UniProtKB/TrEMBL annotation:
One of the Pfam families matching this protein, by short name: Glycos_transf_1
Residue ranges occupied by any Glycosyl transferase family domain in the UniProt entry: 216-367
Keywords: Glycosyltransferase, Transferase
Entry's Gene Ontology molecular function annotations: glycosyltransferase activity
The keyword Mitochondrion appears for this protein: no
EC number: 2.4.-.-
Name this polypeptide is given: Glycosyltransferase
Keyword Transferase set for record: yes
């Protein structure tokens, strides 16, 4: 049996982490040849790819064009034919500011010459980062497979390129999978005519998380309060709200360190804000950590300020490690935590956030975790759901 899965790259991220668990599950339960199709064959998670898995990288003329002023000459250099150059130049002058729309136009122009990106036929092809960039289009148009599944991890409004266009492609998949009930509602809000959408939570390897949390990889000062946030430094993670909130506590004289684990396209902007607010002594940007679990376990509170999430995997991981979670009230957060011993849900107001954090850190440090109960419910059912999904796909 041959199975293909797609992913943008192997950088540290929730989708990549989840993909590794799915590949591990397939290896353990099916006699299969697994291929991963990526945009860039780089990233920290690549070392976790099993040796028996084949990795294919998209050809430059498909992955390359980004349609920005800075990338213009590199984009042209990566194209493989005069026809592609002509299409690229035409689309470059279209008035769309959104490069994703230009990517769609470019794909429409070249797809007939890219009917088979890989010269193989698969039993199952999974657009595992479904909805991102043009992956759904690639899997539908250019991967030869008996069955095809779209797996969506993020809210549709954050992924959507063109509603009518995306709807056409989504309807061509045999199955559509989302990672939470809230995400299912979100999909139907935008595409109410889709066939049944299946909810399968991300696999959370509880024992692996606990084991890794015991491996020290960063110095922690236990004499002060330690906060941690995990996630890409981008607009959605909303770290500027955290800076505003913790500035209030700093002004009150509280001593703390806030560790932000991740990289992203808003890192310089965040660093400028930290400098502007004189918060350098309170905030540490660690960059990417392959193992963030030690820091999550040792932190007093995990802070989460995201504008939206497909699920909120890091919140569940924090609950496993018995770390207090304070999260803003993004849509769907109640699927992961509730306002009880699992965590605290707050509004997007800096004063409200600061007040709730202050209530937590006023307690004696030794009591912060003692009164907590690990109420995480194992999602072993996800294993059975994925096995059932694959069996159905290959035997129907």
């Amino acid at each position: 049996m041959k199975i293909l899965l797609t992913c943008g790259d192997f950088k540290i991220g929730g989708v990549q982490k989840s993909l590794m668990e799915v590949i591990k599950l397939i290896n353990e339960n099916f006699n299969s040849e697994i291929t991963i199709l990526v945009n860039n064959n780089t990233g920290e998670w690549k070392t976790y790819v099993p040796e028996n898995v084949i990795i294919h990288e998209l050809p430059n003329h498909i992955k390359g064009p980004q349609f920005t002023r800075k990338s213009f000459y590199n984009d042209i250099k990566n194209l493989s034919s005069i026809r592609e150059v002509i299409n690229f130049i035409k689309i470059s002058f279209v008035g769309f500011k959104n490069y994703k729309k230009k990517r769609l136009l470019y794909w429409e122009a070249i797809k007939y010459n890219n009917r088979s990106i890989i010269d193989e036929e698969y039993d199952l092809a999974i657009s595992y980062n479904g909805g991102i960039d043009i992956w759904n289009q690639l899997v539908v148009d250019s991967i030869i497979s008996k069955k095809k599944i779209c797996w969506i991890h993020g809210r549709i409004e954050n992924l959507l390129l063109n509603k009518q266009y995306e709807n056409k492609y989504l309807n061509k998949f045999d199955e559509i999978v989302v990672v939470s009930e809230n995400l299912k509602k979100n999909v139907y809000k935008h595409f109410d005519s889709l066939p049944k959408v299946k909810v399968i939570p991300n696999i959370i390897n509880e024992q692996d998380i606990i084991t890794k949390s015991r491996k020290s990889n960063i110095a922690v000062n236990y004499n002060i309060t330690n906060f941690v946030s995990i996630g890409r430094i981008d607009t959605n993670k909303n770290y500027s709200l955290g800076v505003q909130s913790l500035k209030i506590l700093a002004n009150k004289g509280y001593k703390f360190i806030w560790y932000i684990v991740g990289e992203g396209n808003r890192k310089e902007e965040l660093m400028e804000l930290i400098h502007k607010e004189n918060m350098e002594q309170y905030i540490v940007l660690t960059g990417n950590l392959e193992n963030p679990y030690f820091l999550i376990r040792e932190a007093d509170v995990l802070l989460h300020f995201a504008l939206s999430e497909g699920y909120g995997l890091v919140l569940a991981e924090s609950i496993i490690l018995n770390t207090i979670v304070l999260s803003v009230n993004y849509e769907g957060v109640n699927e992961v935590i509730t306002n009880d011993n699992q965590g605290i849900i707050v509004s997007y107001n800096p004063n409200n956030i600061a007040l709730n954090i202050e209530d937590i850190i006023k307690k004696p440090k030794s009591n912060l975790k003692d009164e907590r109960i690990n109420t995480f419910l194992s999602n072993k059912e996800a294993y059975h759901q994925i096995i059932s999904l694959i069996n159905k796909a290959i035997h129907s």
